[in-house]
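Internal ticket #5521
Category: modeling
Description: The requester needs a full-assembly model to guide mutagenesis choices. All entity lines are attached below as received. Residue total reported by intake: 329.
Assigned to: D.W.
Attached entities:
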Amino acid sequence: MTKRAPNSVVAAVASAADIERIYRSLRLIRRAEEEVARIYPSNKIKSPVHLSIGQEAVAVGVCDALRPDDVVSPTYRGHAAFLAKGGELKAMMAELYGKATGVTGGKGGSMHLIDMSHNVLGASAVVGTTIPVALGYALALKRMGTDRVVAAFFGDGATEEGVFAESLNFAALHKLPILFVCENNFYAIHTPITKRWATERLCERVETYGIPAHQIDDGDVLKIRAITANSIAQIRRGERGPIFLECRTYRWREHVGPNEDFDAGYRARTDLAPWVEDDQVAKLGAKLSDSLRAKIDASVEREISDAVAFAEASDFPGPGALRTDVYAN
Ligand SMILES: Cc1ncc(C[n+]2csc(CCOP(=O)(O)OP(=O)(O)O)c2C)c(N)n1
């Protein structure tokens, strides 16, 4: 899948403090997932992991434009959205280790992250199912008369589920405060979009529901942030209901697991090259002084090693936890 030329939409203005904060978030997610990949073969991590290495800019760009009381709905490839929204790294790492101190007490694993103290809705392994849950949350926020907004993340594969079309229609009809964010990484497991869609005009399809749609061709984190900020401002003012973003991005690792899979026969390493060249972690880092970048990198490493130590030192859930949390209270 070749990367298209960037489109010219909103000028992305960011202050020095913005760049510093956004770089830290990108770097934390990248390094945390690289650490997960490093530890994974030891079998200490008990959960399958869908890494978002290479895709971080979407979650970071979107979440940086949200308020703390706004809500995100991640997917099973959800480490980036979880962390970008402020989810606790220690509790995420413990969850991957299957420990009682994890976000779901060690029972859910990587695909079922949740942190309602930071307004991160629970993820699900079942493709597309988080979209109507996010929609229901947006309906509740609207009925409560708040100006809070939900950002619902999902992959290109999820747009092929029937519930995606139903959710678009319902959201448009009821003018719900929801930003739909499609992370289009061009693959559903090993099947490329060219074998699944007769046309790649996803935004056009969405617009037929009466929803404004923007395609962001490259992974430019500041552009994603600027377009999100504009969209959220419109949604918050209650002007028009939902808005849709198609963020084109690229998954650097295999669908599930810590490795690369360019020998699997469904994609070529040359497809990856332009995305590595455009790596947002490196690009944002290059905007900082060497000393500031080194300081941030060191603090990120400390945060990650603290989280790993916390996960390793925590206990597994006891047998008494087997039948708890089965039903909602
Ligand atoms: C309802 C359902 N159908 C099929 C699957 C198997 N499955 C797991 S991930 C996946 C691909 C989804 O691709 P996409 O939504 O683009 O997300 P990505 O993995 O690229 O982030 C599929 C088909 C599933 N988990 N749930």
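Resolution: model delivered.
Comment from assignee: The longest strand covers residues 178-184.
Ticket closed.
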